[in-house]
């Protein structure tokens, strides 16, 4: 069994993130896979999947450890076949459609047979309705979580506007490096969307509770009320949902990039 990790890196303008995926070999290292390109002027260039080995991707995505999102039994030869097929289906790069985040979600979904957990919204990327089932337990490299829930669907609300919806779910999580976090979430289901990396909203009756640092953000929630601030901007949450402003993370991300 191999663990699958998502690594992110704020892009140079300070708003939005580059995504990469690692298939872990058991000690925090393993091969990373990422689609290059993160700018409008690269539209129409040939897509390329960079492969690198180590605790972080060649782009430095995952430099702070990344996040375990699921488990896989895929072999290296099966992975190569998937990558070749993905490039054939997505031959050219586009910041808003066939980008690194689209690749990461589709690769993770395939690696885990649809049983994965990603807590971040897409900045951009066109997905045919991508379904995940979020029924798993993971304890690996300082990160442990258990989750059970109904189907979650990621797709588009209109055009390239990312959106997702899900049914009832519950989960518990503990992180002891990188990051430090403990929490438990319970919700009746929800729907969320965002306008790129500018503003977003989520409707979700919930009693989410947790405190700490995870995914590059500092957060605290008690019975649904709370907030987080960090690389994903600022989010204010209530027991019925949340609003967020990712663009407010630009100064934090700009400073962070100075040290990469």
Quick overview of this protein structure:
This protein is mainly beta. The chain is 13% helix and 45% strand.
Question: Could you explain how this protein is built, in words?
Answer:
The structure is a single chain. The protein is mainly beta. It is 13% helix and 45% strand. The protein contains 3 helices and 19 strands. The strands form 2 sheets. A 14-stranded antiparallel β-sheet has the order 6-9-10-13-14-19-18-17-16-15-12-11-8-7. A hairpin with a 2-residue loop joins strand 15 and strand 16. Helix 1 runs antiparallel to helix 2. The longest helix is centred in the first third of the chain and has 14 residues. The chain is globular and about 45 Å long. The two termini are 31 Å apart. The model has no long low-confidence stretch (mean pLDDT 89).
Largest sheet at a glance?
Answer: 14 strands, antiparallel
The number of distinct helices, counting runs of at least 4 residues, comes to 3
Succession of helices and strands: EEEEEHHEEEEEEEEEEEEEEH
Taken from the alpha-carbon principal axes, the silhouette is: globular
What number is the mean pLDDT? 89
Descriptive labels:
mainly beta, 19 strands, 13% helix, globular, 260 residues
Topology overview:
Layout: E1 2-10, E2 17-24, E3 30-35, E4 49-53, E5 67-72, H1 76-89, H2 100-111, E6 130-132, E7 136-140, E8 143-149, E9 152-158, E10 161-166, E11 169-176, E12 180-187, E13 190-195, E14 199-203, E15 209-214, E16 217-222, E17 225-230, E18 233-238, E19 241-245, H3 250-257
Antiparallel strand pairs: 1-2, 1-5, 2-3, 3-4, 6-9, 7-8, 8-11, 9-10, 10-13, 11-12, 12-15, 13-14, 14-19, 15-16, 16-17, 17-18, 18-19
Helix pairs in contact: 1-2
